[in-house]
């Protein structure tokens, strides 16, 4: 079993948790869904749900990890055994540990796309939207071996740092990449502030137009506030198991939420400034980074290539720090349960998601797409939809309910001391009522059971 002496420092834990939370969703997904739902009104709802749903569950998950001092399965098993009527079957809730591994089957592929686009940006940018669309469709539809190469490169990079463990791998990676990511994003923000369109970008992002806020936009805001903090996949539980009891979990959660939100807002300001400056629409959808942005960078002239590489590098950094946190929970579980060395556990878990990732790549190809599809839907989309719409929300509900009802209130004394009586009562009500109901409504809406 791996030594528990390998623990995070305070800032190492914060950087690692920020790295887990700050992923492709902040720099890629947040700007495009904000663009789709009208800007400022969506941002306001998103900020409110970050505080009352996302942060509440983040604190709960940090507490569970610090309380159990082990992998998610062992933590839930211990909590079940502490109940008056012992319920060791609660350990099955801990298999949210493998949600991250399922996400990695397609997340690693997307990180591979980013590495490809960094290479492509160095060698020249597309000058028209049609040229950019052709490049992207050719990559995912025809260039199978190119994708496999970059998917493999991403996998080996991720596994290298996971194999290093808490101190020499995960903390080292995040201590390097998170400050680098912040520097790049601040640099891009400062540059965007020199452009005339910055004022339009700021207004779009922070001035609400309530007529554009639909019920669907509200649901997307709740969903994104939940998913952007890396909740429901055992990552926060796993990281929090490796910190001393003296660390203030509430302050750590608020710090993580702050950095996560700021990076998303900065990314939005930068991207919308570039879009407005060069006459593009903000509602470009998921193709924003891989189709619209390369064309915009090409219109900037020579500096566009530099900005493109910096922007894509920031995206790659965000992806890598999140990816490490997605693999680590499964690795720690295998180490603890099967007394396996970290190297063997890392290689085993990495091989599983790498192999399934190849199936995901083939499911988008024009030659093998039909073979690697189920019910007419590519394996890539099935994996993404299953985690986003089912596994992560369910895990979030379980985390809230276990913390709110299975953990004795007296055992939450640490959080009560950290928050103070008033804020603790607000959080306790949120974790028992608001958070599980909000996430449940999200799931029911996504599956079409209810319409809001």
Please render the helix and strand layout as text.
Layout: H1 10-21, H2 24-36, H3 40-68, H4 72-82, H5 99-122, H6 129-141, H7 144-163, H8 165-193, H9 198-206, H10 215-227, H11 235-240, H12 249-277, H13 288-299, H14 302-338, H15 342-363, E1 373-374, E2 377-378, H16 379-406, H17 413-419, H18 421-446
Antiparallel strand pairs: 1-2
Helix pairs in contact: 1-8, 1-12, 1-14, 2-12, 2-14, 3-4, 3-9, 3-10, 3-12, 3-16, 3-18, 5-7, 5-14, 5-15, 5-16, 6-13, 7-8, 7-14, 7-15, 8-12, 8-14, 9-12, 10-18, 13-14, 14-15, 15-16, 16-18, 17-18
3D architecture notes:
Helix 10 (215-227) crosses helix 18 (421-446), helix 13 (288-299) packs antiparallel against helix 14 (302-338) and helix 14 (302-338) packs across helix 15. Helices cover 75% and strands 1% of the residues. Strands 1-2 form a two-stranded antiparallel ribbon. It starts with 9 loop residues before the first helix and ends in a 6-residue tail after the last helix. By secondary structure, the chain is mainly alpha-helical.
């Amino acid at each position: 079993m791996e030594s528990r002496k390998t623990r995070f420092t305070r800032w190492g834990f914060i950087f690692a948790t920020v790295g887990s939370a700050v992923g492709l969703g902040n720099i890629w997904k947040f700007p495009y869904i904000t663009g789709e739902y009208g800007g400022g009104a969506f941002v306001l709802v998103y900020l409110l749900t970050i505080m009352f749903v996302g942060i509440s569950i983040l604190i709960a998950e940090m507490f569970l990890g610090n309380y159990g001092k082990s992998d998610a399965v062992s933590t839930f098993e211990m909590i079940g055994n502490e109940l008056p009527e012992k319920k060791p079957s609660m350990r099955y809730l801990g298999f949210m540990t493998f949600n991250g591994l399922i996400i990695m089957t397609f997340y690693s592929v997307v990180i591979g796309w980013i590495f490809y686009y960094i290479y492509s940006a160095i060698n020249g940018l597309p000058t028209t939207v049609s040229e950019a669309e052709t490049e992207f469709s050719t990559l995912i539809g025809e260039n199978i071996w190119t994708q496999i190469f970059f998917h493999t490169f991403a996998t080996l990079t991720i596994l290298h740092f996971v194999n290093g463990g808490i101190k020499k791998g995960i903390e080292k990676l995040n201590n390097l990449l998170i400050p680098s990511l912040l520097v790049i994003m601040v640099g891009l923000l400062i540059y965007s502030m020199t452009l005339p369109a910055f004022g339009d970008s700021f207004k779009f992002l922070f001035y609400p137009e309530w007529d554009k806020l639909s019920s669907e936009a509200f649901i997307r805001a709740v969903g994104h506030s939940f998913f952007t903090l890396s909740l429901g996949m055992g990552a926060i539980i796993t990281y929090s198991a490796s910190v001393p009891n003296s660390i203030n979990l509430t302050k750590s959660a608020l710090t993580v939420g702050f950095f996560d939100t700021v990076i998303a807002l900065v990314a939005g300001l930068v991207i919308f400034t570039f879009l407005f400056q060069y006459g593009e629409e903000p509602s470009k959808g998921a193709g924003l980074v891989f189709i619209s942005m390369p064309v915009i960078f090409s219109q900037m002239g020579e500096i566009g290539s530099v900005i493109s590489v910096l922007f894509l590098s920031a995206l790659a950094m965000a992806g890598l720090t999140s990816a490490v946190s997605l693999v680590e929970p499964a690795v720690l579980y295998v180490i603890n349960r099967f007394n396996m060395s970290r190297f063997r556990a890392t290689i085993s878990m990495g091989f599983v998601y790498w192999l399934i990732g190849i199936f995901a790549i083939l499911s988008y190809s024009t030659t093998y797409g039909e073979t690697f599809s189920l019910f007419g839907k590519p394996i890539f989309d099935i994996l993404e939809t299953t985690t986003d719409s089912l596994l992560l929300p369910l895990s979030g509900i379980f985390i809230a309910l276990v913390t709110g009802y299975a953990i004795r209130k007296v055992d939450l004394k640490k959080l009560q001391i950290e928050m103070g009586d008033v804020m603790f009562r607000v959080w306790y009500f949120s974790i028992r009522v608001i958070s599980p109901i909000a996430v449940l409504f999200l799931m029911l809406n996504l599956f079409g059971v209810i319409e809001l």
